[in-house]
Amino acid sequence: MNSNNGSCAYLERETPMPLSKEMRAYLASRYDCDPHKEILFDGDAVSVIAMLSDGNEPEQLFAGYLADIERDMHRDLGTELPNELGAT
User: Fold this and answer.
1) What is the extent of the structural domain holding 58?
2) Among 2, 8, 29, 76, which residue's CB has the most CB atoms within a 10 Å radius?
3) How far apart are CA 53 and CA 30, in angstroms?
4) Contact at 8 Å (CB) between 19 and 41?
5) The organism sits in which domain of life (predicted)?
């Protein structure tokens, strides 16, 4: 960890991103963030955490669950929701 930049060292870690490219692109576009460094995945939970230009500390822009994000993404993009995610 770089002592000059310790507060955002988590943004630089190489964490596997098991999210689809489509979902990463959707979140990156929606929250204006880097899809590979600022979108964190833990189980079925997703967080978007970014350094804001006017602050020294990272800020959580969004936190949610995969199923909710998937529903929002399909609603916003006007695409069909897969049946396993609650489509009727």
Assistant:
1) 3-85
2) 8
3) 18
4) yes
5) Bacteria
